[in-house]
Amino acid sequence: MSNHTRPSTYKKKQRRRPFRRKYCIFCAEKAKGIDYKQLDLIRQFTDDRGKMIPRRKAGTCAKHQRQLALAIKRARFLALLPYDAEHVRIYGR
Ligand SMILES: [Zn+2]
Questions:
Q1: 18 found inside a domain
Q2: How far is the CA of 48 from the centre of ligand 1 (A)?
Q3: Given this model, what pLDDT does residue 58 score?
């Protein structure tokens, strides 16, 4: 008498994670290029220390991440964006 029935009350552990579908906002807006003068836009892709937010977090596609990186670097060169936290600390930005 070997009745090996599995208990039917076995529940699969449901792991819910707050997963947000990442998408490239530049593709969504059908932006042709990213301009270094669009500071409000560019600033969204830098953190509070002035660093660029990586693609895996920002969700931008490779094409637009390259354009964004170039725009950020140009903006930094023109002193529109900080290079690193040192500048943020000194100038309060
Ligand atoms: Zn894109």
A1: no
A2: 23
A3: 93
